[in-house]
Here is the input.
Amino acid sequence: MTKTKPLPNDYAARIRGAWQGRVAGCMLGKAVERFSMRAGAEALQGYLSSVQALPLRDYIPYDPYQAPELLLKACCKGQLQASLPDDDVNYSVLALMMLEAKGASLTTEDVARAWLLHLPLGSTYTAERAAYRTLLSRGREWFPEGGALGFDILECAQNDYNDWIGAQIRADVYGWVAPGDPALAQRLVTVDAQLSHVGEGVYGAVVVAVIGAVVAGGGALLAGVEAALEAIPARSDCYKAIQFAQSQTALADGGAVIRERYQHLNVVHTVNNLALVIWALLRHPDDFSAAIGDVVAEGLDTDCNGATVGALWALQGKPIPSHWLAPWDGAIGVSLAGQAALNLEDLVTRTLAVEASLSAL
Here is the structure.
């Protein structure tokens, strides 16, 4: 263990906030995810402006006369009554389940088995679906039950989407349960990420987990970002994206500048979305609504970025405004095998137990 300071006195509150922030940010972005991806940031901002929702500081209004067809009404202001299932939350719960079962001994094969046993194929996308397909087509019959896989697990990451955002959205919990121990967070998240990703795809996941470990342990967001830079290669695109995002944090239009810089990348690539996450966090370290609102309003992968920013921001131990929490009232929707709705306080208790078991090693 490399933990350098005792657990913060408010660690439990930080973990509660992280779950709350992840769900709230995800629901905010989920409302416009498909619309933003297909129509672009300018169209998204055009709708938000037309309904007087800029700057974005609450759930997105639903105007029946102006709402685009792809707007998800069930996640809009006044319509949101429950946390809907989403892959961003699925992976957080699944990471918790895997850590409960395997702890620090978690392997990439364990992650693959957990996917096959608990994660519906239809709830996976791009790199995850490609890796899943490889597991199904090449894995031996009894692998899910503990048998040998029959091929090198890392071959699952040889797919066309292995530098996209998937691993980055699976990273949060590995930081939450390693407060003050970024090396542990980096090791655990890499074990997970390398099932489907390589290079920049893994680096983005490492960045999120390392920031989470530092902040959950009582460090500042900026300290978390600096630690993340130390954890990835200086030559990597993620490293350069973080530095560029830092240079834009004083600017209200920094998000637009970032989008322009990375316009050649797919809207669900790791690097461009990571830059927006860092920009929003460092621009608004004291304003939850502004942090998730601004990152979602910039488009790209809105639900993923809202969830990641929401969780990392809340790990600071600062309160989340109640209007983000009241509509779903602690009930968290998932689409994992045998599970549909989970209780916030149960997830908090389970997360605290995982941290305690890891810190006892």
The chain has one domain: 11-359. The longest strand covers residues 331-333. The CA atoms of residues 235 and 350 lie 38 Å apart.
